Amino acid sequence: MEQLTTGQQAVQTLKWLDGRLQMIDQRVLPARFEYLSFSSASEVAEGIRTMVVRGAPAIGCAAAYGIALEALALRQLNREAFAAGMERGFAVLAASRPTAVNLFWALARMRGVWQVGLHLSLTEIAASLLHEAHEIAAEDVRINRAMGVYGAALLADGARVLTHCNAGALATAGHGTALGVIRSAVEAGKQISVIADETRPFLQGARLTAWEMVQEKIPVTLITDNMSGYLMSRGEIDAVVVGTDRVAANGDVANKIGTYMVSVLAQRHGIPFYVACPLSTIDLTIPDGAAIPIEERSPEEVTGFRDCQWAAPGVAVRNPAFDVTPAELVTALITEKGVVMRPNRQSIAALFPI
Ligand code: MRU
Q1: Any ligand 1 atom below 6 A from CB of 243
Q2: Hey, whose CA ends up nearest to atom 6 of ligand 1?
Q3: Is 245 one of the annotated active-site residues of the chain?
Q4: Residues spanned by the domain of 206
């Protein structure tokens, strides 16, 4: 296991090294900065399920590498055994987490490359799948940079920006979606300060967003999840920028549990609510937010944190990991193709010309 100090600037969530996928273990940040190594689709699926890697675009990239790893491991077999093993790889990855559509988007893209290359040798197929995984990761950074430029224009110099969960470099192949907008605004010379809410129960805000911002010396203030209304009521928040795990065809936005609450508060206080949303996160097959599958995670995440369990043993628990913000509460989607104000079915469909 490779250990790095937390003083490093560039956060490289996933990297390909010596024929294996290395991913930062996001469960132990910020106390430890460590990479774990993955060599099969099932290992990557387990890494996604247990949140070694999390965040919609990063999950998609990891799944793509999982498929490439499987192809590389199986390429000495005959075609039938290769195909059976690959199908098992696709299935175990597809079952790892349900909400972020980027996972299924990346798997579909990898399947397309496999199908187009059916006439090739298995070694060539494996090479083309690895090439595609690299391309998905590189493209993710380019997309985040493009969203950053569009989103930065929406933030005034001096803006105090609330973000929920972590939609940063750690949640992507680099730069981030919501934090990418903030990074790009800072790069453009704007004074931006970030308010990170802690994001119970997994604490992505406190552990990951705060860490990313501290690393880069972007001013950040940490609050608990129940403080944003108070700060808004006192005029201490100018804009909200969040990421998303899946956007339905009508513009409803699934994101980390608690996002809906923030969006309602933002509307109450007349604060713009922006969603940084790569096109790979839009699911045109889902008519509206009610049909988005919402992951329920284990009760232990709510009854305590890691080894410290504080709730009464035996208490009933709900732990939905995501919620849905209705499109009517979304001021704008920030995509790599531009800003979609007040998104609706028509404006979303227009992002995908036939
Ligand atoms: O459960 P997580 O940590 O995977 O949830 C992550 C989020 O909700 C992010 O906001 C979303 O994936 C967008 S990341 C660019």
Answers
A1: yes
A2: 55
A3: yes
A4: 146-349
